[in-house]
Amino acid sequence: MNGRTESPHVSENKLGRYLTAAPALRKQLIHTQKNPPDPRYLRYPDAAHAITDFLCHGQDEAILRRHQHRLATTVFESEFDAHRAESCIEAIEHYRRMHPGLGLGGLIATTVGDAPPPLEVAGVSIQVRPQVVLQEVDAHGNNQVGLLKLYFSKHHPLDERSGQYIAILLNAFAEQHLAPLGPLDARRMLVVDVFAGRAYSAPRARTRRLCDVRHACEEIAARWAVH
C-alpha cells in the first residue's frame, strides 16, 4: 500500500539523478518521492543483503554463492517474487565480478543498519542509506573512515556527475554522523553501480557541488506542496 509523505524528503539516489535531470524528470522525481512504492515491490533487497553479508564477513565468495543458491532453490508464491529472486542472483553475480577491482581487501566493513538518520539540508531530509562503513588504519595508526553505497538499476545507470553527487552525499552524511569514528577518507566514499560495473568516489573539489545540493534541496522544498 502506497504511503504519501508530506514533509520534504528525497533519497540519495533520486537526488543524484535530480541534480543532473531535465525539468520534466525533476517534477516526476518529486512526485515519486511524495508517493513512494510499496516496499514489498522493491527489487533488490536480497542482493543488497547478500553483498553486505559478504563484505562484513571476510569477503569470502562462498557467501555470495550461498545466497545465490538460496534464491535459486526457493519456491516463491508469486511470479513477482520469483522474478525478483532472478534479478538479485544476477545482481550478486555482477558485483562478484567487479569486487576485485574495488580495492577493498584489508578494510574492515561493518553494517550501517536499516534506519540510519537522515542528512538534513535546506529543509529537506535526505535519506542516505549506505550499506556498510569502511574502516582502515593508515601508516600513522589513524583510523580512516569511508562508506559504501550499492546502486541497483538496469535501465538508469549513473553517469559521472550523478555518481559523484551521491558520493558527496555519503561524505556529508559521514561528516554529520560518523565523525567520532575517525578522520574521513573521501576516496572511500564509494558508490557502486552494480549493473554498470562502475564505482564513483567523492571528488576533491566538493564545495561547488555541495552548493548544488543545497540549491536542489531548496527547490525541492519549494515545489513539494505543488507536485
Instruction: Measure the end-to-end span.
Output: 20 Å
How many helices? The count is 7
Q: Would you tell me the structural class of the helices and strands?
A: alpha/beta
**DSSP strand (E) fraction?**
15-25%
- Uncertain ranges: none
| Largest sheet report | 5 strands, mixed
Report the count of strand segments. Answer: 8
**How do the SSEs run, as a string of H and E?**
EHHHHHEEEEEHEEH
**How many distinct domains?**
1
Strand order of the largest sheet: 2-5-6-7-8
Helix content range: 40-55%
CA radius of gyration is 18 Å
Mean pLDDT across all residues, rounded?
A: 89
Shape: globular
Tag the structure with descriptive keywords.
227 residues, alpha/beta, three-stranded mixed beta sheet, 7 helices, 44% helix, globular
Can you give a write-up of this model?
Strand 6, helix 6 and strand 7 (184-193) form a beta-alpha-beta unit. 38% of the residues are buried. Helix 3 (45-56) packs antiparallel against helix 4 (61-73), helix 3 runs parallel beside helix 5 and helix 4 (61-73) packs antiparallel against helix 5 (79-98). The longest helix is centred in the middle third of the chain and has 20 residues, at 79-98. The protein is built from seven helices and eight strands, in the order E-H-H-H-H-H-E-E-E-E-E-H-E-E-H. It is α/β, with parallel strands linked by helices and 227 residues long. It has a five-stranded mixed β-sheet with strand order 2-5-6-7-8, with helices on both faces. A three-stranded mixed β-sheet has the order 1-4-3. The protein has one domain. The radius of gyration is 18 Å and the shape is globular.
